[in-house]
Amino acid sequence: MIVDSIDLSKLYLQQAKLDERIHLQHHTSYANTQSDRILAFFVELSELANETRCFKYWSEKPASPHAVILEEYVDGVHFLLSLGIALSVDIHTLFEISSQESLTLTEQFLVIYNNAIHYMQNPTLDTYGLLMSNYLILGRMLSFSIREIETAYYEKNAVNFARQDDHY
Questions:
Q1: Which of 125, 139, 143, 155 has CA atoms 20 to 30 A from the CA of 63?
Q2: Cβ atoms within 10 Å of 82's Cβ, excluding its own
Q3: Domain ranges of the chain
C-alpha cells in the first residue's frame, strides 16, 4: 500500500477567500448554507462519477479525458474545503492518501457517498477527516498527482472568482 500525505493549508486559505467573497456578495454565511454545500458536494461527486463512467457496465463508451475528470474532481475539492472551513478544521492538518487496491472506482465512490452522509448526520472533525481522506484516495485512484490537484484547484478557483465578478 502506498501512503502519501497532502498539506491543504494553502488551498484552505484560498477557499476561505472565495467563501468570504460569496458570503459578502450574497449576504449568506457558513451556518445558513451548510445543507446547500453538502448537496453541492453530492452533485459534484455525481458529475465526477458520470465523467469516469466507472459504473456504466452497459456501455462501451470510454471515460472522459483526464483533464475533464480532473476539473470535476477539483469542483468537489472546493466544497470539501468549504465544509472543513465551516467546521474550523486545522488548516495544517495533513491528510493521508493511501492506495485502495482492493476497491473498484465504483466502490470508492460509494464509500465517499457513505462518508458524506455520516458527515451530514454528525459533522465532526473525525467524520470530515474520513470524508476528505477518502476523496483524496479517489484522486489517487484516478491517477491525479498532488501537484495536478493543486494546479487544477487554483485554475478553477480563479474561474470561480471571475464568475462572482460576472454575477454568476
A1: 155
A2: 22
A3: 3-165
